[in-house]
Design brief:
275 residues; alpha/beta; Adenoviral Proteinase, Chain; 7 strands; elongated; hydrolase; cysteine-type peptidase activity; protease
């Protein structure tokens, strides 16, 4: 490695060394830290192998052994993180809003690559988009303001069936992830809740959902009704449906199950994950 022009030197144990050697040390320390992360991940798998199926343990261990340490992560839009960041997904910490956006991006890529027919008319949205709908529907004045024009335009696309499916994962009470799919063809709001299975009827919002899902679902209904009025067509009232989803047996799987429910809905050959 050539010494840069006018480079300074550093002295280590009375030996003068070129300044660029610092970058070599930094790289070595980075790899050393990453090795610790990987070793911790493999140790975690070994400690929990009795709690997880042998096939899943083997799959994870094989993946850990094959990944290139210094490689960048592929599959996420504009990703700059190294593979060391993947250890984040071995714990419940992988259920933040930013992670939900990553899963949405991956499903979006799958739909773009393999989607045919109706799948080309799917709009996958982030949890923040749902929050904006709730904010917009707080009052007519807010809804019709300039800042929420894009939400009104999306409603018109559903009304005109330019967009056939409006789907995503929403956060409820800052503690739970719930999947939803608004189907413009069947005029159905499908909800997938891994904690609370319920019987859905056409008479209205199921009692089980009233205590914590009423706010987002009522916002959806208001939004869709306003879109009908804006389009100056009567439209059809939306009813409710159950989105098939795995029922969780712990306190942290809701986000994974919600994302899996969306993927299984759009790709019927996929199966729901086991609890």
């Amino acid at each position: 490695m050539p010494v840069p022009t006018n480079a300074s030197s550093i002295i280590v144990s009375n030996v003068y060394l070129p300044l660029w050697l610092v970058n070599v040390w930094k790289a070595w320390l980075w790899v050393h830290d990453l090795h610790i992360l990987w070793a911790t991940a493999i140790e975690w798998v070994a400690d929990h192998e009795n709690e997880i199926s042998a096939a899943h343990v083997h799959t994870v261990q094989t993946a850990l052994d094959k990944l290139i340490w210094a490689h960048k992560i592929h599959g996420f839009c504009d990703s700059t993180a190294g593979v060391g960041a993947l250890t984040h997904y071995l714990s419940p910490n992988c259920l933040a809003t930013t992670d939900m956006d990553h899963y949405r991006e991956l499903l979006h890529e799958e739909l773009d690559k393999y989607g045919e027919g109706d799948l080309e008319h799917v709009q996958l949205v982030s949890p923040d988009y749902v929050n904006r709908i709730i904010q917009a529907c707080a009052s007519p004045e807010i809804y019709w303001s300039r800042n929420y024009r894009y939400i009104r335009e999306m409603g018109l696309k559903l009304n005109g069936q330019i967009t056939l499916y409006f789907a995503g994962v929403m956060n409820v009470n800052n503690s739970h992830w719930v999947a939803f799919i608004i189907d413009a063809k069947s005029h159905t709001i499908n909800i997938g809740d891994s904690q609370l299975p319920c019987t859905v009827s056409n008479r209205g919002l199921p009692d089980q959902w009233h205590h914590y899902l009423e706010k987002p679902i009522c916002a959806f209904q208001f939004w869709l009704q306003q879109s009908d009025k804006a389009a100056k067509c009567p439209g059809t009232a939306y009813t409710y449906g159950n989105l098939p989803i795995t029922q969780q047996c712990d306190g942290s799987s809701c986000g994974i199950f919600a994302q899996n429910a969306l993927a299984a809905y759009f790709f019927p050959t996929l199966t729901l994950v086991a609890p």
